[in-house]
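Lab notebook, bench 4. We co-purified these components, and the gel suggests they stay together. Before we commit to crystallization screens, I want a quick structural picture of the whole thing.
Request: model the full complex, all chains together.
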Amino acid sequence: MFLISCPYCGERDQSEFVSGGEAHIARPKQPTELNDDQWAEYLFMRKNIKGIQFERWNHVHGCRKWFNVARDTSNDKIEKIYKMGEQPPKI
Amino acid sequence: MSKNLRINNKHFVDETRKLSFTFNGKKLYGYKGDTLASALLSNDIHLVGRSFKYHRPRGIMTSGSEEPNAILQIGNDDALTEPNVRATEIELYDGLICNSQNCWPSVKFDIGGINNFLSPLLPAGFYYKTFMWPASFWEKYEYFIRKSAGLGKSPSKQDPDMYDHRYMHCDILIVGGGVSGLMAAKIASDDNKKVLLLEDKELLGGSLIYDDSDISKIDNQKSSEWLKKLIDNIKKNKNITIKTRTSLAAYHNYNFLLARQNLTDHLSVNDRNNKIRQRLYKIRAKKVIISTGAIERPQVFHNNDRPGIMLASAVKKYIDYYGVRCGLENVIFTNNDSAYETALSLHKSGTKLNAIIDIRDNSSSEIVNQVKNLGIQIYWNHTVVDTKGYKRIDKVTVMKLNDKGNDVIGKKIDLNCDCLAISGGWTPMVHLFTQSGGKLRFDNKDNIFVPDKTNLDQLSIGSAKGDFELDDVLKNSIKDTKKFLNIENSNFDKIDVKCSKEKEKKNIWLLPSDRPLSKTKPFLDYQNDSTAKDIKLALREGFKSIEHVKRYTTTGMGTDQGKLANMHALGIVADTTNTNMGDLGTTTFRPPYTPLTFGTIVGRNVGQFFDIFRKTPMHEWHVENNAKFENVGQWKRAWYYPKDGETMHDAVQRESKAARESSGILDASTLGKIDIQGTDANEFLNRVYTNAWSKLQIGKCRYGLMLNEDGMVYDDGVTTRLGENHYLMTTTTGGAANVMSKLEDYLQTEWPELDVFLTSVTDHYATASVCGPNAKKIINKIFKDLDLSDESFPHMSFKEVKLGDINCRVMRISFTGELSYEINVEASYGKYIWEKCIEAGKEFNITPYGTETMHLLRAEKGFIIVGQDTDGTMTPVDLQMDWIISKKKYDFIGKRSLYRSDTVREDRKQLVGLLTDDPNEILEEGAQIVKDENKKPVDMLGHVTSSYFSPTLKKSIALAVLKEGKQLKGQKFLVPMIDKTIKVTVSDTIFLDKENERING
Ligand SMILES: [Zn+2]
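Here is the predicted assembly.
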C-alpha cells in the first residue's frame, strides 16, 4: 500500500487513489486525419516497462484531481509527483 | 503424575493458579503461565500427533511458532473450534479442550501408520505421480487424501466472536521485544521518537529474560537482572507504546504493516464474553526496526523425528521458563556452543544429562569448559546415526565421524535417553525483511542468510541480523540503531558485556550414517514428511530450481512454511549439485507469517456491514409495501411488489399491464445525475455524446449515447437544458460514478481550456416516474396550475414548478413508451412526493412497479439497457442506432473508432429481436443462438440479452445479439437448451407501438 503525496492535498494512503495508466499520451487533436495504425497506436499501445514509468493517478476519494507520478515499477518507489500539463522529470 | 517433571521455584508460571484442561479426552492439569505444550510436557506427554504422509508418531519439538508437529484442534464447539493451533503458542486456560488432528482412530493407534511401512512406495512427488490420472478419478482420490491426511476440521457454524481493526502511526516500529528490540526502543524514545513495540509473547525480554545462568554478564550484573531493569524503565516510558501477544502478520511496501493481537485467547471461555477476540493493527511507520530473533536448527540424521527429540533451546526454555523437564534421561546432540547452555540448565535443575554428542573436534570456550568440569561425558567428533523407540525415544546410537565428516567409523555406541536435545545452529528470522522486498546475502562463514539490500527505511538488529552471541548482539544493536536514527550518543555507549561462548560451529547439512541413504529416514520437513532422500530424488529426476524442488517434495509447504526445514533443504541441494548456497537463492515466506483467522482479516465488516448499500428516500415505503429488492451497483432497488403470494412472474405481469392500461409509478431516484454548468457546457456535451447538442433549447430534453474512445457504447441517458449554461445529465444507475470520473478526466487532462463544472447530484434529488394513459390526469391533480397540453409541455421537455414550498423539476420523458412524467425533488421530499402521486393516482389504480417491470416495458419498445444488451463490445451501429451518430460533428469521444477496420465489419454481432415459434416459450437470457446443431463444433452465432413474456402482446419477446443480425430479419434459428431446442425467428427490435403513439397518451 503506497503513500502518495497528492499535489493538492498532501500525503495520503493509496486506497484514496486510482491509477489511470500511462501518462503523456495526448488525445490526438485531429483524430479523423489519422489512419487505423496511428489511431490504434494512441488507443491501444502502452509501454508497461520495468523501471521508471510515468503514470496518471487520480485522488478519487479526495480532491478528485488528476496528476502525474513517476514510479519505479520494480520496487514501487515514487520518484516524483507533478501536476497535469507539466513536463515529465528527467530521471 | 508419576514422574517428577515439574521443577518448583520458577518465576514465570503461577503455581498458585492450577488450571485444568483436556487432551484427547483425558483431564490434565497445568498452571497459569504455561503454554499448552509446557503443560502437556509436564504431564509427560510428548506424542501429540501423526505425520502427514507416513503417519509417524510425532512429539512437541519446539517452544515457538516454528513448531511443525504439535498442531492441535482446539475446542469442541461447532462455532468456536479452531484447527491447526500450535500447542507451543497457545497459552493454557482453564477448561481448554484439545485433540490431536492428524490421526485416526487415535494418536496411539493409527491406521494410517501403515504408510510408514509402505514408505518405499511413497517417494517424492508421490501425490503428483499417482493421483494425476485418470483425471476423472480425481474426486475419489481427493476424498481419500483428505480423509487420511485430516488436517483438522473447520468450524461449521458462524463465528460468534468479535474482531477489530485499528490504524496506528509511529516514528519507529520495533518488531520483537527481545533484548535488542528493547534497547533500540530505549535509544529511540530517549531521542523523543514515538515508538511502537510489538512482542508476540505474553512477556517482554525474549530468551535472555529467563536465562538463569551466570555465564554471561551485562554491566557486571546477571544479564536477566539487567534486562528486567531495562523492561521496567521502558514500561514507564510515555514515548513507547507496547503491544504484547501481538504478532506481525505482513510487512508491505512503504512501511505498511499488519499485526494481529490476541486479546482473549488466553482467557477461560467464560471470561471472553463480550470482549473483542483479536485486533488487527494497520500500521504506518516512518522507520521499522526488525528484532525478531532467530530460530534454532535441528540436525538431519536417520530417525530424527521421534517424540522426545527436541530443539536444545526448547528444552532449556521448558526448564528455565516453565519449570518443566522434557525428560529424565537427557542426551544433547550439537554442532555449536549454544546447546551447552541447555546442558547447564539441565544440570542446575538437577536433571540427568547422560552425554553430549558434538560433531566438532573440540571447543575450549568458557561455557564448554564449565560443562567439562561438571564431569559430563562429551563425545567429540561423533554423530547420531540412529534412534529407537516408537512412541517416545528410548535410545540413540552414536558413531565417530571420519576426518572429512562424510562417513562414520568405529563401533556403535548406544546411549539411553527419553529426551534428545538437538542443535544445528541458528537461522535468523529474516521473513519480514524478505516480505518487505529486501534482498538477502548468504554468509558463507556462518551458513546463514542475512539481510542485505532494502529500499525501505528499515533496519534488522540482533540475531535477526545474524548476531548470535550476546556481546555482538548488544554492541552491534546499539551501534546500528544509533546510525539508523542519526543519534550521536546513547545511554548504552559504555555497556560492558561478558560472553563465554564461541562462535565456531561445524556444519554438516546431512549427517552421514552407517546405512545407505536409501535405507534411512533423515527428516527435513516434519510436517510434510519430506526427507533428505526426497530432495536427492528430485535432483536426480532433473529438478534444478529450489522452488521446484520444494513443491515437488512438498518441503516447506506446510502451515509452518518450513521454518525448520528450508535451510537444510537448500544445504543438501547445494552440496549435491556442488553449488554455493548463496547462488541457489532462498524462498520467501509469504504473509501471513503465522496463520490468521478470517475473522481477524474481516474485522467488523460482517453481516450488514459487509458492504455498504444505498437506499433511496422512498425506500421505507417500498419496504412497507412488500417490495422485493435487487442490488444495482450499491443501490437497493425495488425489484417487484408481490401481492397476496404472487410469484415474480405474476407480479411483473400485473404491474406492466397496469402501466400500459392505466398508470404505474417507478422510483427512479437511483439514476446518476450530474449537474453541468459553464459557458462551454454545450460544447462539452457535443464532445462527449455521439449526437448533436448545439440546437437543444432551454427547457428541452435529449437522449444521448456516450462511447468509449474505442467506439463501444459506454453509457446512455437523458440530459435536460435547464438554462443557457446549465444542464442536468442523467446516467445509468450502475454507471454513474464511472461516467462522472470519465468526464472529469477529459475536462482536467484533455480539454482544460473548457469552462465547465461538474457536480454529482445523484443523492441530492429523488425521482418519481409516473407513466401510463392516465399519467397526465394524475400529474394534473398534483400540479393544478401546470399547463400539461402537448403544445405547452410536449414530449422531451421540462418545467420547473412549485408544490407549496417544494421546487419540482418535472420532465416529460419516457423509458416505457407510455406518456410519462418524471418528478424530481430535493431528496428530503422524495417520500412526500411519492406518496402524493400514489394518493392522486388511487382512482386510476396507480401501480408501483419495480425494475423487472421497467425492463419488460422498455424491451417491448426495443430500448436498450447499457450493460445488459451491451457488453463493452457493441458500437451504436451494432445496436442499429445509426440515427444517433451525428454526421456533422468533427469529433466526439469514440468517433474515430467507428470506422476502424474492425468496427465496420459487416459480420459483427448486431442487436436483433427474437420471437419464439411457440409464443409461450420464454428464452433464457444468456442462451446461445445457433443455426445448425449437428455440425460439430457448433457455431455460436450470438446470444439472448433480454427476454420476457409480454402481457400486452400476449407472447414471449427477446432481444439478442446475432452475427450479421441486421440482414437476417425473418430467418429461423435455434436456441439449444439442456432439455430441448427452442425455435426462434429474427424480428424487429421494436415489438410494440412502432409509431410511438402511446407517448402522447
Ligand atoms: Zn488531493
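Chain B has a mean pLDDT of 92. Worth comparing against the SEC data before the next meeting. Residues A 6, 8-9, 59, 62-63, 65 surround zinc ion (CB under 6 Å).
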